[in-house]
Amino acid sequence: SIPASMIDTTAIAAVKTALGTSYQMELLIEAAVNAKTWLETEIFAVLGLYPVTKGNGQLSVIRIAAAGASVATITHDSIVANNGTPLIGWDANFASIINVVTIEYDWDGSEYLTKSPEITSPASIAKFGRRALPPLRSKGLHAALAGTTDLISARAQAIVDRYAFGVPLVPVTVFLQEHL
Q: For residue 135, what are the CA distances in angstroms to 30, 131, 138?
């Protein structure tokens, strides 16, 4: 078991508040499972969260960030070079594009009975083609629980909003110098 002091309950409570405290999931574990894989599959993926280990060793979760507004533009003139080798680069990371999301839920013990409507980004589909995420699934989401369809729609929309135009990568070369 994990000592309570190793869980960042403050950050988890903040994420719960940000997602909405009225949503519910109903989960039943009937056999031994890998806790990390189970949490990632059943809870984190459908809620747009990912686990982190903080610098102090505490376990926590972070929500995927919404795409932000540009704060600067990288051009050929703004790339600093060292002996002709660029120190900063740009990768549009088109492989990260997700413009269609569906979530399957209402697990009956053998199959998912309900599939959410597709949440899409028509502008992204027009520009890059259809790039669907394999359906997210959670045995804890049930239509009979209050707010489930609202939660599913909001989380699927957040994933599409974040990844519809990719998540650019900016590789940077740095030189570390040790000062004694």
A: 23, 12, 10
Helix (H) or strand (E) holding 153: helix 148-163
Is this structure's pTM higher than 0.90? no
Contact yes or no for 99/164 (Cβ under 8 A): yes
3-state secondary structure of 29: coil
Residue 105, φ and ψ in degrees, nearest 5? -150, -170
Q: Are 100 and 133 in contact (CB under 8 A)?
A: yes
Q: What's the average model confidence in pLDDT over 25-39?
A: 91
Q: Cβ atoms within 10 A of the Cβ of 175, count? A: 6
Chain-centroid distance, C-alpha 3: 26
Residue owning tokens 């669907």:
132
- Our CA dihedral for 82, 75, 65, 100, rounded to 10 degrees, sits at -120
